[in-house]
Amino acid sequence: MPMNIARRTFIAALASTAFPSFLLARPQPDSDPRVSDLVRNGKLRVGVGLANRGSAIKDPATGELLGVAADLGRALAARIGIAFQPVEYPRPGAVLDGAPTNAWDVAFLVIDPARSAVADFSPPYMQSDFTYLVPNASSISKVADADRPGIRIAVPRGDAVDLALSRLLERAVLVRVENQAAGADLLRTGQVSAYAAPRPVLIGLSAELAGTRVIDDAFANISFAGFVPKGHAAHLSYVGEFLDEAKCSGLIKQFIERNGLRGLKVAPPAKLN
């Protein structure tokens, strides 16, 4: 389908502004038949896992959602011309729990093969890697050092990093936690040897946890994509087009920079017709 010039112009306009969090929807909803049901409902339900600015966090003072996934949800709702309605979960991995019941229309998560059982996803919009945060005095200097007997590694339960390490580790033990704060606390108190997460998360966490360092190499390269519950191919097509526009216009790069995320990069755009 040829790219709609008006849509590309709209996304480019967003990328050229400061993109305020109260971004207003377009005066007229999109007439694209792929999202006609969303237009009728008047809202875009975005599954958001609260964890970090790569996904979303809540401003403690205002309650506003901050982070790349929240920003993308607002921008997509604005493109369609409907309201942004976040559907919140305690961590990104929990978002997939809502897919079988269609509790949300779209989510922005890390791609993992296991997730294809309940949702379909777009081409990647953002890339990074998984690695470890360890104490400065740790004997773990590279990823291979962590897979040893006696090593305990904290991971957020059900997140993509948990899924990846469940397949990769042979000797180390995973300690599943309910959120990032719990994992950081286990590392701080010496109850685990390492905390695993996307590199941008760990870079930020290391700045908060004195005496820690991020391992230089990685145990997996990761990609973030737009997800929709199974059976919504039209929505997925629309979301994929939106994300490619957002990559080409510089909007996703702006979101990464605005959220202060090091270690993240924009994925290459798909071939445009």
Quickly count the helices.
9
CATH 4th-level superfamily of the largest domain? Periplasmic binding protein-like II
Overall 3D shape: elongated
Helix content: 25-40%
Note the beta-strand portion.
15-25%
From the 3D coordinates, which CATH architecture of the largest domain would you assign? 3-Layer(aba) Sandwich
Number of beta strands: 13
The CATH class of the largest domain, by name, is Alpha Beta
Structural class: alpha/beta
Distance, first to last CA? 7 Å
Order of helices and strands: HHEEEHEHEEEEHEHEHEEHHE
Q: Uncertain regions: pLDDT < 50 for 5+ in a row?
A: 20-25
- Could you say how many structural domains there are in total? 2
> What is the CATH topology classification name of the largest domain?
D-Maltodextrin-Binding Protein, domain 2
Major beta-sheet overview: 11 strands, mixed
Any idea what the radius of gyration is? 19 Å
Q: What tags apply to this protein structure?
A:
11-stranded mixed beta sheet; 2 domains; D-Maltodextrin-Binding Protein, domain 2; 273 residues; 9 helices; alpha/beta; two-stranded antiparallel sheet
Give an overview in words.
This protein has 273 residues and is an alpha/beta fold. The chain is built from nine helices and 13 strands. The protein has helices at residues 5-15, 36-41, 68-80, 92-95, 160-168, 180-188, 199-208, 233-249, 251-258; strands at residues 43-49, 57-58, 65-66, 83-89, 106-110, 119-121, 126-135, 152-156, 173-177, 194-198, 212-214, 220-229, 265-266. Strands 1, 4, 5, 6, 7, 8, 9, 10, 11, 12 and 13 form an eleven-stranded mixed sheet that branches. Strand 8, helix 5 (160-168) and strand 9 form a beta-alpha-beta unit. Helix 1 (5-15) packs across helix 8. The N and C termini lie close together (7 Å). Mean pLDDT is 92; it is low at 20-25.
